[in-house]
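To illustrate the input format used throughout this study, we show a single complete record. The first block contains the structure-token representation of the backbone; no residue identities are included at this stage. The design step must infer an amino acid for every position from geometry alone.
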């Protein structure tokens, strides 16, 4: 018996053990590619480019969703009363634009200095009254990534909806102290396509008893995309109202295209020619705000981008290089500084980015073939408007890309009765825009002089608008 046991031990030692050692790396690799990395979260107290300790609570981390997606987020705790203040899940548009956009370029507690990629405080941050999760959505956006490309969902509108819904339930499962806080899903631009179906999905989940139960209260959308029918059809009357095209061209367009500009009959040559004349008139115009110079980021000369590169210095103050930068040619150059900052090794270390998970960070993903499989979000607005959720829809009135004309059109099409009719709202004794409220809990507001992303050029007005609305006060 002892001899048999000895032979068995020798067999295991000399034959099976080497085989197991040989297969172990492949086994580990297989497991790592077919299973999520454990959810992680880290507190960030210092950021390169900001002098001193951050005076607000910033957390970054990853939540695994689907089969292979690891979604990265920035979470800022409310600077007011975080135990009771609302929680916002903020989704930047694009599709595929990073949550860093909302955090540092729009409505978060920090913003970039426009002369160097240094950071300063934003005194008009929406985090004064709410906690906000800025999410890199979907996977392959910002610092989010996939553990196995062969298992990853093809990026699309429906994938965004699925990933966002799974993310927020898992995130609140990991942060149960915020489960009772009022929850709002929010975003701007292309998020107008995905936020309404996310709200509907979460609402249905609550009704079906999916845990954890969310204290879902509503949604917020700025200059939201809805559909070509509403958004693109509104561009021509908006441009005419801003005196960018002549009366004659406008009348000819309206007559030849019959008011339908988003889908053109190829046999209707008169409509086609008029549309070409329209876009020629607007070829030198910034569609996001005609008052700003035209400077499209992806068309910027390589030399300009190269001039913006500045090496970060690791010193006790954690400030960036003090080498004098060139003048910024355009306010949108700030995005280049943002890209330079986010790609720095020290920054990624401070944010606790998992090493080797992405290549070059881009504010908006321009490398993928994204499928826009929700042609219109209007039906979702219809469905959720009957469930008692609050909503704030706002439009910068100088945006031609997604004009207020189209946004007002789909709001009217909801057929909700008016509770408070059209009137001006004010900040500092001046008209800041116009507003109207509806029986379905929706508040609509224009931001006077606002661009496609109003918090970028009407910061104080948007701050006041949000403060009043989130606290259930009249604008």
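Output of the design step:
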């Amino acid at each position: 018996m002892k001899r048999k046991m000895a032979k068995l031990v020798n067999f295991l030692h000399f034959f099976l053990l080497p085989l197991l050692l040989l297969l172990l790396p492949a086994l580990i690799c297989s497991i790592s590619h077919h299973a999520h990395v454990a959810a992680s979260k880290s507190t960030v107290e210092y950021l390169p480019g900001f002098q001193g300790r951050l005076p607000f609570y910033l957390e970054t981390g990853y939540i695994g969703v689907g089969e292979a997606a690891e979604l990265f987020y920035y979470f800022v705790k409310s600077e007011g009363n975080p135990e009771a203040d609302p929680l916002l899940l903020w989704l930047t548009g694009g599709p595929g634009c990073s949550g860093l956009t909302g955090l540092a370029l729009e409505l978060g507690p920090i913003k970039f200095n426009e002369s160097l990629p240094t950071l300063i405080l934003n005194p008009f941050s929406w985090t004064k009254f709410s906690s906000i999760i800025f999410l890199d959505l979907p996977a392959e956006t910002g610092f989010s990534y996939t553990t196995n490309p062969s298992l990853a969902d093809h990026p699309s509108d429906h994938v965004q909806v699925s990933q966002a819904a799974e993310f927020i339930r898992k995130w609140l499962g990991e942060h149960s102290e915020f489960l009772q806080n009022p929850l709002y899903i929010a975003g701007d631009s292309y998020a107008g396509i995905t936020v309404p179906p996310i709200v509907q999905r979460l609402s249905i989940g609550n009704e079906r008893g999916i845990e954890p139960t969310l204290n879902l209260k509503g949604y917020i959308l700025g200059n939201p995309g809805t559909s070509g029918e509403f958004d693109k059809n509104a561009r021509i009357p908006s441009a005419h109202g801003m005196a960018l095209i002549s009366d004659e061209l406008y009348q000819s367009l309206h007559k030849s295209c019959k008011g339908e500009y988003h889908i053109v009959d190829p046999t209707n040559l008169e409509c086609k020619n008029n549309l070409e004349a329209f876009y020629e008139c607007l070829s030198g115009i910034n569609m996001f705000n005609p008052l700003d110079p035209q400077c499209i980021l992806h068309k910027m000369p390589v030399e300009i981008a190269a001039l913006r590169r500045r090496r970060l210095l690791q010193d006790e103050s954690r400030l960036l290089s003090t080498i004098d930068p060139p003048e910024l040619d355009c306010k949108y150059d700030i995005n280049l500084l943002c890209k330079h900052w986010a790609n720095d090794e020290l920054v990624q270390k401070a944010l606790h980015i998992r090493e080797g998970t992405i290549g070059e960070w881009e504010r908006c993903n321009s490398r993928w073939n994204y499928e826009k499989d929700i042609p219109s979000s209007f039906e979702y607005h219809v469905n959720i408007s009957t469930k008692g959720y609050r909503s704030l829809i706002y439009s910068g009135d100088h945006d031609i890309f997604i004009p207020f004309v189209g946004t007002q059109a789909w709001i009217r099409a909801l057929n909700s009765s008016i509770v408070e009719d059209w009137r001006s709202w004010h900040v500092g004794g001046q008209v800041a825009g116009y507003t109207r409220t509806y029986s379905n809990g929706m508040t609509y507001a224009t931001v006077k002089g606002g661009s496609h992303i109003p918090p970028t050029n009407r910061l104080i007005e948007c701050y006041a608008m949000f403060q009043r609305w989130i606290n259930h006060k009249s604008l």
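Structural context for interpreting the output: The CA atoms of residues 73 and 135 lie 5 Å apart. Residues 2-34 form the longest helix (33 residues).
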